[in-house]
Amino acid sequence: MAAFISRGAVGHSSKPEPRVTWRQGSAHLHHVFHRSEQGVKKATLHVRSLRRDHLGAVFTCEASNSNLTRPASTSVTLTMNLKPVRAVIRGKQDFLSAEFRAEVECEAEGSLPPALVSWWLDGVRLNTSLAQTRLSAGGNVTTSLLGFVPRARDNGRQLRCVATNPRMPGHEEVADVWLLQVHYKPRVSLAWGNRVNRSSIVQGTDVYFECEVDANPRLIEVSWRFEGHELASRLSNFIVSNQSLALRGVQSSNSGHYSCVAANAEGASESNRVFLRVQHLPVCDPNLRTKYTAARQEELRVHCSVLADPWNVSFHWSLNGSAGHRRDLQWAVSSTTDPRGLVTSYLRYTPRNESDFGTLSCSARNAIGLMMRPCIIHVVPIGPPMPPQHCNVSNQTMGALRVDCEGGAEPGHSFLLEVHELQRRRLVANLSSPTPSFWVDDVPPGTKYTLLVYSFNGRVRSEPVLLSTHTLTNAAQGFSEPGPPWLVSSNILVSFLVVAVCLLVAIPFIVLIAIKYKSKTPEDREDKQVHQEKHLPGIYIANQRRLLRRPRPIFEKCLLGHGGPAGGRTSLLNVVLGWQHRGLGGDDRLVGWPRPTGNRQLGRCYVAPDRTAGRAGSRNPARRRRRRRC
């Protein structure tokens, strides 16, 4: 540190000559005397090797020529420029995340005047606007706060904090260094593999891709995408090895955009997208319309679309008629700029007779070759569409109703509804709808209707679906005005009284009938039940004595009393009855054929129309057997 020099001077007029001394506090310092030509006596103080503790030191020069007087003195205070002692970066972290703001401090101590702090990144000084500076209370500590956003490229660079004294240029500077560790998401790039001529990739060849990744920290996984979706969900002919993708025997379905995705602890990144163009034979468009309906002499505009690469395609049309003959129709050449490689040929075709209906075959050829399977398009004569399904009527009111059927309409189809009044046999409404739902209003109440629902394809309508319904009357819809509460209550009370009176009157009759029924034997009750059973329309036995009239000769199921063993009771069997004519002068008889029971076949029974017999329900088994012979 440079020496400090101070000089003191005493005038020559002083007698006796003065004694000049230097002191610091109470300590006397060594000095050197000089006398000028004018007789002025000078004392020079030399302080060598100044130290930091000399800052603010006070040096006093005293002159005295007698003990009788106070010595004359003067003092000087030492002011110094001090360089910084040290610089320290505080807030260092193990790593920083790219694209996220970070803050760091640098403290510089021991500078006077205060130190100037600057930040440097790999030898490049950072903008001072990024840092904020503050001083300590004593002024000898300067703190600089740096806020910055690290980038992936900053990984491994040095961040330096440098402190200098602005009044001591060229002197030593103090600094601290931080080696940055920046973590960032993978930086991914997709490139073609070796030996791939991407300008002429033909179906059946193998294609390779390389996924180039730069990541910190290390990778967790690498995945592949095709048209923005996971590769495994879209393709099957691929092999993944580390960061490479191999497509074996590519086909037209492999054409599209490929990318790779790399992920680490900081996140995932997707690479650039590479388009793979596979030149291939023409193939039919999956969305091609394959059926046309037409009437005779109706011109059709049939189109045939194929996916092809190259796009210069020639088409050939032929017809396999319904009569089994085949004929060529035309050649056509088309091209397109559709990125998907969709090429379309149009054919104007008019079926003039039955043999012109059949199958159209469309074949396409490009520079790769002829398509393997032609596109097949069916031309069929127009016919009625399928009728609507599961139709029902709902929401009937006095003047309106709703009709709904299930199922949606095919393209170009609509639905028709005819409403016919049943009694007057007239059409009262004719509606159409694109869906099988109709709302019919403004029709008379309390009227029966026949509804006809059709499907319509623009030319022919289907077989009708027949529905029968009616509109409601005022009473059925419940439009009567309710009465006051007291009137409703009185009506309920009257109803209860009427029911009670009816029960009181009916109970004696029920008791009498029960007594009379119990007085009869089981045979009487069974025999009476058999003879009073109604057998055929217009055939019955009255008063248990005779047949009132001869019925029509038809067969019907009925129940007939059949005699069991001697002394046994009569049982009821399922039989089939019919009248049998016995010739001139003979009586007709009612013949019954019992149905078989299990494996047993019963014989034939008949009942003679006995007009003179006594009571049919007689308890005499012999008389019953004469009338019912089996």
Main sheet summary = 5 strands, mixed
Number of domains: 6
Beta strands, count:
47
Strand order of the largest sheet: 9-17-18-22-21
The helix count comes to: 4
**Cα distance, first to last residue?**
156 Å
How does this model look, in words?
It is built from four helices and 47 strands. The chain is mostly beta strands and 630 residues long. The protein has six domains: 4-77, Immunoglobulins (Immunoglobulin-like, Sandwich); 86-180, Immunoglobulins (Immunoglobulin-like, Sandwich); 184-276, Immunoglobulin-like; 281-381, Immunoglobulins (Immunoglobulin-like); 389-477, Immunoglobulin-like, CATH 2.60.40.10; 522-629, no CATH class. The radius of gyration is 61 Å and the shape is elongated. β4 and β5 (41-47) form a beta hairpin. It has a five-stranded mixed sheet, with no helix packed on it. 9% of the residues lie in helices and 45% in strands. Residues 609-630 are annotated as: Disordered. The chain crosses the membrane at residues 492-515. It comes from Rhipicephalus sanguineus. Residues 384-476 form the Fibronectin type-III domain. Residues 621-630 have a biased composition (Basic residues).
